[in-house]
């Protein structure tokens, strides 16, 4: 048996992330004692319509977030309890709605800092409707073996350590949340555990007082004794003493009262909970509460430390009188463990998980990213540049100084080629249409292909093949290409020719050949090919794609990485064009009619649809 | 409870039609001279000058001067502003009109669980303590305001007659409005004075407590509550309050000069029991501190460093119950960093540290703090199996 919360309790949580966290903790308890999920719904307008994932053991449950209380209660008529997890400025209104909903019998509020006037009004409203209001500032309610409302009881392991999976004989009433947990632990250590534990909150005007709960415990035959942890301020403990003294009570009362230290502190120095304020002339002092409770017949140790002994003593008396039968110990091994997360099991080395992807180039799991094992900051501090990072991430090796100088030049030379080429024009068109940078640059990117910038990979690939398969037979190579591929990738230019050479190509070839010691068999082969092709037609020169492809193959980059150099380099240009258009406040453009040949059918009537 | 100073209280009285004397609050004595040029009452009335600070026993400290003319009031302000009283300094004075009056009455209102109680007496001023029997009371249930007839009746019961009873009832009805609408917890007007020649009333002194938690619905509360601890807050206390206002959860600190046992305790309930345990064993606390609601580790670190700097401490009690949701590992990492930092700055010399805690991730948290032993800290670490306040017993016996 229990008070306030039991096996039939079904709850709605009104609130956001803190409420969801509480629901997760509550589901752990549901799993421990094998009961259905306590939380049936959330109410939180900002996240209305979402599903919250709640694990009950290994079972994933989805709990709906509603926009307001009424639809949640309509769809879940079994809900009889509302937990308020909102901030102080909104909590009162939520509590009013809950108290006014016919199905809801108990409202528990965790909210701290609820104005006193609001708390008083809520209490009055609860009384009017015959409802229970617990809190504000309450960590929640725990009924061992039956129901958990809120995060009371803490982490899963503690639920077991405090024997909360099965009822005991002690009730617990506290103002403080932390001490409710401590008291449950003391009851498990020195007695047989708890029936229910209620934290009423440390505010000046709690919704429900100690006496109301004592009366409920008195009527709960399984509860044989109650541990009450009170404190200086207010008169709830005095009322409890009066209640105890008023007539013979079935339950025994053990109480600890905090705040005796205030006797020796400078006058007016107050601390602790909002309600922990001594009144005029010592009214509500810890000492006067202790005296009142002692006179009423409660067990009241001088300090909190004495609580263990008092609980033990009462437990032994109850055992001796036969009121409690000795509890047979449950083998804790029979209690379920929370299913661990995949990460936890992997740490133990007890599970094999097939990886979804594999990477061989970089790792960010440490303090900073590492490229092929090298820390990014160390590369910077040792004077490496972006071209070395390209070498590492694309080719998995650190280029030599000579190699990185070549890479740098390739990127510099191909960064842009004016606004007229399809890539830049695509970006500009998008920029003029007001498209944001990433999408506008992607528009330019989509132009990269066989007719624009996309020949680097194939040029490298086929010239390399030529070196291997037709080392001294360029006509043979050209014949093979004509038969199997078509025009040789990397050969030919729309405007440049032998007489009007591409300065970029000229520079690159001369730089690599004259200023570096790079061995360039593929470039040399392509230049031989160019001699033959230009003899046929003046503009069949080795173009910049072809030159880059050959040099990059000579540098040892993987074949399929080669187009990347053009993509990387030209991204710089496309971003530049986008920035430029935006700086210039460029307007939307459209083609002029005179640039279009409308080779269309003349105007004609639309026939009736058959 | 949040006590506010006379100035803000007078302003709220004025707002709700409770008669107050003319007054000004100033920080600069020269400003009073200028105000004198603009305000006839400053030139023509007798004045009272009071330090406008949360300092108890102002009269005895010479921080209340009465019966002054403007020049004397300027001189008194000059004397008071900047005066150092213990650790605090007078920064403002309130200068009010000293109303000639024929009688001093007492009116107050104090909240209780069912609403509030209104108290009225004909014997106000310093006489009230001796005439407590003369006080008439009426319970004002929540959201139910008494009629003016009822209030007149209670005033009559308290011995007021005729027009005065009616005027007192009227002032009470406004007091009830002010109390209710300003989320007050208590208002004491003593004395409420009357000058019978022109039937002028005024609340000459006011003590008002407001519910600071209700500030979200009071856009015109342009003041801050004064310290509730009988003295102004210290710089360290203010720093912790500042952190407290910025974080989820809370960190709190009150310094108690001269104590030997510092508290670095968790939870609003448990922390008080730790203070009790120190006192019960004949020790003296150097502070009260509390962190709860799973505060950020950096906030706990700041609290730790502040506590390590308390002078002449011999023990630090890192105590707490078994937490519900405050992460022990995370909050302890803040405490550990705070200890390390403090030690590197030369604090914690000869200080013994006593730890007892439980809660989420307790095993990792306790293991981490136990490692401080290897770094030369005199630290004693216990888990949930140690009764909560027994570390205090051990500290006091060591």
TrEMBL record, chain A:
Q: Which coarse location class describes where this protein primarily resides?
A: cytoplasm
Subcellular localization, per the record? Cytoplasm
Sorted UniProt keywords = Cytoplasm, Lipid biosynthesis, Lipid metabolism, Lyase, Phosphoprotein
Q: Which SUPFAM superfamilies match?
A: Citrate synthase, NAD(P)-binding Rossmann-fold domains
The Gene Ontology biological process terms listed for this entry are:
acetyl-CoA biosynthetic process; fatty acid biosynthetic process; tricarboxylic acid cycle
List the molecular function annotations (GO) for this entry: ATP citrate synthase activity; lyase activity
InterPro entries noted in UniProt: Citrate_synth-like_sm_a-sub (IPR016143), Citrate_synthase (IPR002020), Citrate_synthase_sf (IPR036969), CoA-bd (IPR003781), NAD(P)-bd_dom_sf (IPR036291), SUCC_ACL_C (IPR005811), Succinyl-CoA_synth-like (IPR016102)
GO CC terms on record? cytosol
Query: One Pfam family of this protein, by short name?
Result: CoA_binding
Domain ATP-citrate synthase/succinyl-CoA ligase C-terminal: start-end pairs = 174-298
Q: Where is the CoA-binding domain?
A: 7-113
Q: In which pathway does it act?
A: Carbohydrate metabolism; tricarboxylic acid cycle; isocitrate from oxaloacetate: step 1/2
**Protein name stated in the entry:** ATP citrate lyase
From TrEMBL, chain B:
Q: Which family does it belong to?
A: In the N-terminal section; belongs to the succinate/malate CoA ligase beta subunit family. In the C-terminal section; belongs to the succinate/malate CoA ligase alpha subunit family.
Its GO CC terms are: succinate-CoA ligase complex
The protein's name:
ATP citrate lyase
What this protein catalyses is: oxaloacetate + acetyl-CoA + ADP + phosphate = citrate + ATP + CoA
Keyword Aminoacyl-tRNA synthetase among record annotations? no
Can you tell me which residues the record assigns to a coiled coil?
A: none
Q: GO terms for molecular function, please?
A: ATP binding; ATP citrate synthase activity; lyase activity; succinate-CoA ligase (ADP-forming) activity
UniProtKB keywords: Acyltransferase, Ligase, Lyase, Nucleotide-binding, Phosphoprotein, Transferase
Provide the species name. Answer: Chlorobaculum thiosulfatiphilum
The organism's lineage? Bacteria, Pseudomonadati, Chlorobiota, Chlorobiia, Chlorobiales
ATP-grasp fold succinyl-CoA synthetase-type domain residues: 4-194
GO biological process terms on file: lipid metabolic process; succinyl-CoA metabolic process; tricarboxylic acid cycle
InterPro entries annotated for this entry? ATP-grasp_succ-CoA_synth-type, ATP_grasp_subdomain_1, Citrate-bd, Succ-CoA_synthase_bsu_CS, Succ_CoA_ligase-like_bsu, Succinyl-CoA_synth-like
Q: Which residue intervals define the domain ATP-citrate synthase citrate-binding in the entry?
A: 232-397
């Amino acid at each position: 048996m229990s008070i306030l919360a039991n096996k039939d309790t079904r709850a709605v949580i009104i609130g956001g992330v803190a409420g969801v966290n509480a629901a997760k903790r509550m589901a752990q308890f549901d799993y421990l004692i094998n009961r259905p999920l306590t939380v049936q719904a959330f109410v939180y307008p900002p996240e209305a319509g979402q599903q919250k994932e709640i694990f009950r053991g290994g079972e994933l449950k989805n709990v709906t977030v509603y926009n307001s209380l009424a639809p949640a209660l309509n769809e879940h008529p079994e809900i009889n309890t509302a937990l308020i997890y909102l901030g102080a400025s909104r909590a009162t209104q939520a509590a009013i709605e809950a108290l006014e909903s016919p199905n809801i019998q108990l409202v528990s509020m965790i909210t701290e800092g609820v104005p006193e006037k609001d708390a008083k009004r809520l209490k009055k409203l609860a009384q009017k409707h015959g409802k229970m209001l617990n809190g504000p500032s309450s960590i929640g309610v725990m009924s061992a073996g039956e129901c958990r409302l809120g995060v009371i009881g803490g982490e899963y392991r503690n639920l077991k350590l405090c024997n909360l999976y099965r009822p005991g004989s002690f009730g617990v009433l506290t103002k403080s949340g932390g001490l409710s947990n401590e008291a449950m632990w003391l009851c498990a250590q020195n007695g047989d555990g708890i029936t229910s534990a209620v934290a009423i909150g440390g505010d000046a005007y709690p919704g429900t007082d100690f006496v109301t709960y004592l009366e409920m415990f008195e009527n709960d035959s399984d509860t044989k004794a109650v541990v009450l942890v009170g404190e200086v301020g207010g008169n709830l403990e005095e009322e409890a003493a009066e209640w105890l003294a008023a007539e013979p009570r079935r339950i025994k009362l053990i109480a600890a009262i905090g705040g005796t230290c205030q006797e020796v502190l400078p006058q007016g120095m107050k601390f602790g909970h909002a309600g922990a304020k001594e009144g005029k002339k010592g009214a509500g002092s810890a000492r006067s509460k202790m005296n009142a409770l002692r006179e009423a017949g409660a067990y009241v140790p001088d300090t909190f430390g004495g609580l263990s002994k008092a609980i033990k003593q009462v437990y032994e008396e109850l055992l001796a009188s036969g009121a409690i039968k000795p509890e047979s110990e449950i083998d804790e091994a029979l209690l379920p463990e929370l299913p661990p997360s995949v990460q936890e099991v992997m740490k133990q080395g007890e599970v094999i998980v097939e990886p979804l992807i594999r990477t061989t180039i970089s790792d960010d799991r440490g303090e900073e990213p590492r490229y092929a094992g090298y820390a990014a900051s160390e590369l910077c501090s040792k004077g490496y540049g972006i071209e070395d990072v390209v070498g590492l991430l694309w080719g998995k090796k650190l280029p030599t100084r000579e190699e990185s100088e070549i890479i740098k030049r390739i990127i510099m030379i191909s960064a842009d080629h004016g606004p007229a080429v399809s890539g830049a024009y695509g970006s500009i068109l998008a920029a003029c249409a007001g498209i944001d940078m990433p999408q506008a640059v992607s528009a330019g990117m989509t132009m990269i292909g066989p007719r624009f910038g996309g020949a680097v990979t194939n040029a490298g690939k086929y010239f390399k093949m030529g070196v291997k398969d037709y080392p001294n037979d360029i006509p043979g190579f050209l014949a093979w290409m004509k038969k199997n591929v078509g025009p040789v990738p990397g050969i030919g230019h729309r405007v440049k020719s032998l007489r009007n050479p591409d300065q970029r190509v000229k520079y690159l070839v001369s730089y690599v050949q004259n200023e570096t010691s790079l061995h360039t068999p593929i470039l040399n082969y392509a230049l031989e090919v160019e001699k033959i092709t230009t003899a046929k037609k003046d503009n069949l020169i080795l173009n910049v794609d072809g030159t880059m492809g050959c040099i990059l193959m000579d540098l040892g980059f993987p074949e399929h990485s080669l187009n990347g150099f053009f993509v990387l380099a030209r991204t710089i240009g496309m971003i530049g064009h986008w920035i430029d258009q935006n700086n210039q406040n460029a307007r939307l453009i459209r083609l002029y009619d005179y640039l279009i040949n409308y080779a269309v059918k003349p105007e004609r009537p639309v026939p009736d649809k058959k | 409870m949040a006590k506010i100073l006379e100035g803000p209280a007078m302003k709220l009285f004025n707002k709700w039609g409770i008669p107050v004397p003319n007054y000004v609050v100033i920080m600069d004595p020269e400003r009073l001279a200028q105000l004198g040029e603009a305000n006839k009452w400053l030139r023509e009335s007798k004045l009272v000058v009071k330090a406008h600070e949360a300092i108890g026993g102002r009269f005895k400290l010479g921080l209340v001067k009465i019966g002054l003319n403007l020049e004397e009031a300027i001189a008194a302000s000059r004397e008071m502003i900047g005066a150092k009283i213990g650790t605090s300094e007078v920064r403002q004075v309130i200068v009010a009109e000293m109303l000639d009056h024929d009688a001093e009455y007492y009116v107050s209102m104090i909240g209780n669980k069912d609403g509030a109680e209104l108290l009225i007496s004909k014997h106000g001023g310093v006489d009230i303590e001796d005439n407590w029997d003369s006080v008439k009371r009426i319970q004002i249930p929540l959201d139910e305001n008494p009629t003016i007839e009822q209030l007149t009746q209670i005033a009559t019961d308290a011995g007021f007659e005729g027009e005065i009873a009616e005027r007192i009832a009227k002032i009470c009805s406004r007091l009830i409005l002010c109390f209710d609408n300003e989320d007050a917890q208590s208002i004491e007007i003593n004395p409420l004075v009357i000058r019978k020649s022109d039937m002028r009333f005024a609340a000459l002194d006011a003590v008002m407590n407001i519910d600071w938690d209700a500030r979200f619905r009071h856009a015109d509360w342009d003041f801050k509550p004064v310290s509730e601890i009988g003295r102004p807050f210290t710089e360290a206390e203010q720093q912790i309050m500042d952190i407290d206002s910025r974080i989820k959860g809370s960190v709190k600190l009150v310094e108690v000069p001269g104590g030997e046992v510092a508290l670095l305790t968790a939870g609003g309930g448990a922390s008080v029991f730790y203070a009790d345990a120190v006192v019960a064993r004949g020790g003296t606390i150097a502070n009260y501190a509390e962190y709860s609601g799973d505060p950020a580790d950096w906030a706990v670190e700041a609290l730790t460093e502040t506590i390590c700097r308390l002078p002449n401490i011999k023990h630090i009690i890192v105590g707490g119950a078994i937490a519900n949701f405050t992460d022990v590992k995370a909050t302890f990492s803040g405490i550990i960093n705070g200890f390390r930092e403090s030690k590197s700055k030369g604090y914690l010399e000869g200080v013994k540290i006593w730890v007892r805690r439980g809660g989420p991730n307790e095993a990792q948290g306790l293991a981490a703090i136990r490692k401080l032993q290897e770094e030369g800290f005199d630290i004693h670490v216990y888990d949930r199996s140690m009764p909560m306040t027994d570390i205090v017993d051990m500290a006091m016996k060591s």
